[in-house]
Structure formats: structure tokens, C-alpha cells
Design goal:
- By secondary structure, the protein is an alpha+beta fold.
- The longest helix has 16 residues.
- The protein has one domain: Alpha-Beta Plaits (2-Layer Sandwich).
- Strands 2-3-1-4 form a four-stranded antiparallel sheet.
- The chain contains three helices and four strands.
- The chain is globular and about 40 Å long.
Length: 100
Amino acid sequence: MLIVAGTIEIDPAGRVALEAAFDRMREASLAEAGCLDYQAYADRSRQGTYFIFEKWRTQDDLTVHFGTSHMAEFGAALGSVAVRSMQVKKYVISTEGDLP
């Protein structure tokens, strides 16, 4: 299993456009084979900062995702706003379980 998580910080003036793009991306991604979760949350204390969380079954599923038209559309939307920083990482998870 793979987790993709990180933060994207944009100029808050682009917030409405980026949130609409996140909504479209989330809906399309959740319909993909192997996508177990896909979320983007606005940071309540830092305007223009978003936390990204994705869960994928396999690397192949994630690779296919990167080639989709909705990923290209999201990339174009992200390119249309002033991105201040973006730090998103992939984590390979060997086990998952409930907290004690």
C-alpha cells in the first residue's frame, strides 16, 4: 500500500480555483481502480495551505493515476495559481492496523 501525503501552499487569492480543482480531482481519483482514499484539506490556521492525503493499493495504480486526464487538468489548475511551496511525498506501507 502507498500513502501520498504533504502540503501545498498557494497565494490565498487562488483558493477558490484550487479548491474547485481539488473537488474534481478527488471525485475522479476515487473512481480509479486502486484508489482507496483521496483528500485535500485546507489548513484552518494558514490561509492558502492544503494538506494532501492519498491512499493507493499499488505503485501500478498510482502510476496509472499520474497519466489520467484529470491529473493533467489538476496540474494545469495548479499551474494557474501562485504556488509558494509544495512538499508531497510517497510512503510505502507494509502493514496497517488499528490504534490500541
